[in-house]
Every structure is written in C-alpha cells, then in structure tokens.
Amino acid sequence: MPRPARPLRGHTTALLLVLLVAGWLLVVGAALWPLVAAGQGVARPTWRPLARDGVHDPKGPAIGQLQEPAEALAALPPDGAGNSVHWIRAIDSGAIAPRSQILPGTVVRTLDQDIIVAKFGSMPAVKFPHRQHTLWLDCSNCHEKLFRSKAGANTFSMAAILNGEQCGLCHGAVAFPLTECNRCHSVPNASLQRRRTP
Amino acid sequence: MRWAPAHRWLQAALLGGLWLLPGVAPAEYGDVVLNHRSDAAGVRPVVFPHWFHRIRFRCKVCHTELGFEMRAGSNQVLMTDILDGRFCGMCHNGQIAWGPDRCDLCHSGLKGTPPGIVGGPQTSGPGRW
C-alpha cells in the first residue's frame, strides 16, 4: 500500500537545516567577534558565564557569589589557547603574584636550566625550560615519578603524551594544550649538532 | 584593524561548533568536577576551578604542601578530611578561604556531571590529535 504523499517534508527539512546553519553562524560569530574587535592577532574567545558553562547548576546559590572567569581573566596577558591566559607572562609581568607556600617551613625551589630533547625527526627539537615550570611547580611534582632527573635518561613518546601521560598530565589539562606543537618543538634541528652516542 | 590569522579562525570555528554537540561540557579549561560521592549523597557535585586558584597560589602549594596528586581522581577527598584541615581544608577553614560551612559555594555543579577534568589529551578538539 503506497504511503500518502507528504509534500511539505522536503521544505520542513530545508527550513530546519537553514535554522541550524543560522544558529551555528550566530554562535561562531559571537565567539569570533572579540578577536576581531581586539585586533591583537591573538584569538581570545569570550569566557562562558558560570551559569552557562555546562558544569555549574545555573539555579544553584553559588551563581552570583562565585567569581566569573571573565572578571578575573580579562585583565591577564592574552593567549590563544586554554584559558586564553598566558600564565607565564601573567607572573613575569607582575599581573598576578600567586603564593609559593602556605607552610612556613617549606623550601621554595626554582631552577633556571633548559633541556633540549633532540631526535632529529620530522619535527623541530623540544626545548624544556625548567624556569617556567618551576615558577609554578616543585621539583617533586615531576621527579622522580614522571621523569628521572638525568638528561637523556627519559624516553618520551607523543602517543603517551596524547594519552595524558608524561607532559600530557598537565599539557592538555591545565597547561597550554597539545594543539600548540611549536611551543615545545621550538628548536630547529639544523641548529643542533648530532652526537654519535647519546 | 588587524584580522586574526587563518588558523585561529579555524580553531575558533571548531570550538564554536562544539557548542552544538550535546554532552560536551564547555566548562572553563582545567575545571575539575568531583562527583564520586556527591550525587549519591544528595548534594551537588563540586566544581574545582584551576583558573581561580592559580591566580592566587602556584601549583606547588596544593600539589606538594596540600598533598594533591597530579591527576584528577587520584585523591579521594572526604568531607571529614576537609573538616579535619586536610586537603581543601588547609585553606578552606574560614582563615585563608571560606570555611566548610559554605557548602553551596563548592558544591555548585550540575547533578549528574561525571567526575573528571575539562580538557584532557584530546584538548576538546575534533577527535584525537
């Protein structure tokens, strides 16, 4: 038995599609507008209000009492990824001065030393700067569990990092994400000398 | 007026498009949802904002002095710990930050939100990088 003709169906689908595309354009437009307006060449999407961030209860009593991300982060040095804040520049510029300890007896340790990890593959070599990391972290956060304190003693794997191991424990979670390849892979192989035995 | 480079537009478009996907929580990068017990206990899950805390404290304070491991979910923090001054309770004691009597300020999440950290190895992008 033939089904009755539904001449409006095609039009309805088209209308829905048009609405969907229009909605998408509206959302993308709203996300993009601040970058265009700022004109800094650094993408800085707006921070979502807590009530619309998908994890906070918009009807909860905390909304209106908790600080909004935009209020705190808009004044900090911009970045194109993560929280849209360049957290190293935030400390270096004095925009923030986070405390290093709350217990009086704690020894605050920092280290200014770069480690170059070169595999001479298709990507530039990695420069790991201890200074930027120890601004935030203590030695024991990475050593000796994640990495051994001996240059050349660690085996790095992008597969592991992308799975949230090694550097990926923080990069991709709280530190700048793994989409920012060139921030780590920053040293041209041609500028380095191959050594016969590592 | 200078325009953002093309890859930034693409990135923003992809991120913008993500908002349309159901089930993708667009919370602030680094937010941790603690909900191993909250739902079952009938309170809202806890939302821990890294961005708020790192303005005021360096990572080393909580991840060394307070004893928080470097991976979300590694520390099973109980309210009794906090009341006894351990973990969050080392600051959330009414001295450095609000005390544990202000339940709703930490327990502010949407019921049913799975525990974990926002971000992750896929950086909220389209598929694995």
Explain this structure.
Chain A is extended. Chain A has seven helices and three strands. Chain A folds into two domains: about 10-90, no CATH class; about 115-190, Cytochrome C3. The longest helix of chain A has 30 residues, at about 10-40. Chain A has helices spanning about 10-40, 70-75, 85-90, 130-135, 140, 160, 180-185, and strands at about 115, 125-130, 185. With about 200 residues, chain A is mainly alpha-helical. Chain A is about 30% helix and about 5% strand. Chain A starts with 8 loop residues before the first helix and ends in an 11-residue tail after the last strand. Chain B has about 130 residues and is mainly alpha-helical. Chain B has a domain at about 30-110: Cytochrome C3, CATH 3.90.10. Helices cover about 30% and strands about 5% of the residues of chain B. Chain B has six helices and three strands; from the N terminus they run H-E-H-E-H-H-H-H-E. Mean pLDDT of chain B is about 85; it is low at about 20-25 and about 125-129. The interface between A and B is large, with 70 and 64 residues.
What keywords describe this structure?
heterodimer; A: 198 residues; mainly alpha; Cytochrome C3; three-stranded antiparallel β-sheet; B: 129 residues; 6 helices; globular; disordered C terminus
What's the layout of helices and strands?
The complex is a heterodimer of chains A (198) and B (129).
Chain A: H1 9-38, H2 69-73, H3 87-92, E1 114-117, E2 125-129, H4 130-136, H5 139-142, H6 158-162, H7 181-184, E3 185-187
Antiparallel strand pairs in A: 1-2, 2-3
Chain B: H1 6-18, E1 32-34, H2 38-41, E2 46-48, H3 50-56, H4 59-65, H5 79-83, H6 103-106, E3 116-117
Stated plainly, the CATH topology of the domain at 28-112 in chain B is called: Cytochrome C3
Helix and strand element order of chain B: HEHEHHHHE
- Residue-averaged pLDDT of chain A, rounded? 87
- In what order do the strands lie side by side in the largest sheet of chain B? 2-1-3
Spatial strand arrangement across the major sheet of chain A: 1-2-3
What portion of residues of chain B is helical? 25-40%
Chains forming the largest contact? A-B, 70 and 64 residues
> CATH homologous superfamily of the domain at 28-112 in chain B - what is it?
Cytochrome C3
Principal-axis shape of chain B = globular
Average pLDDT taken over every residue of chain B: 84
Low-confidence spans of chain A: 34-41
